[in-house]
Design a protein that fits this description.
This protein has about 270 residues and is mainly alpha-helical. It has one domain (about 5-270). Helix content is about 60%, strand content about 10%. It has helices at about 5-20, 25-45, 50-60, 95-105, 125-160, 170-200, 205-225, 240-250; strands at about 60-65, 70-75, 75-80, 110, 120-125, 250-255, 260. The strands form 3 sheets. The protein has a 3-stranded antiparallel β-sheet. Helix 2 packs antiparallel against helix 5 (about 125-160), helix 4 (about 95-105) packs across helix 5 and helix 6 runs parallel beside helix 8.
Amino acid sequence: MNDSKVIEKLGKIKVHMESAKAMGSEAEAQHFAQMLNQLLTKYKLEMTDLQYDMHVKDEPVEKVIVGGGGQRVDGKRVMKDYPDIEIKSSRVAWTESLLGVIARAHSCEILIHPGSSMLSLVGRKSNTAIVEYLFITMQRLMWKLSASERTKYWNQLKRDGDDVTKSHGFRDAWIDGFISRLRELFEEEAEKLRAEAAKNNTGTALMRIDKDAVATREFIESLRCGTANPVGRGRSWNAEGRRRGRAYADQVDRQGRGMGGAKATKSLKG
């Protein structure tokens, strides 16, 4: 499979991902996003040296705006490619954190747009495509799930005759816990990949992924852009919210079936 076919398949999976989201099947949508990750990783590990050289030539490191930039719809500024996601007029800490975790796990880096929640990615096209799809899907899921989980906890407290004020800060803590565990999952996955590469003597293939990360950092340095300070999150110390967020992140299936174990769609396999 060459680069053009990989990009074509990425686009095909994105269409199905958005269709699943439109039909309300968020778990299935997350499954499609996970398939992107598997597709590209497998492709990079199996390509020949000549194919990798062509890949580097055909996919130079570039900067892309997540969601294709902004547009006005019904008085709101939203993402062009994902009009259900509003672009705020200030930075949003948790989305920056989420994108950063996913980006670094896929040899990419993020750029901040001051005074806006808009974000950009730096990396090779196939990498940034996967990062964007995973980010959009997880952002949608986390925003809905954090609200429903907070409501579930509040109802539990009320049902048990407990103090419902214990739910204060639950949502922020849930999101924080989810992202922290997601970061660990990606790191664990990377370690497994390195151990497998060492066992099977495929270190050369693994170095290709490392080279992409180096190329991305060099591109960032060439931009000579300033480093943005982390935006204040007002971190919540709701221990139960953080615990439940971390537990839910563990449901992100590493075998490609998606969050909650959504079944694979046969038509997209292979």
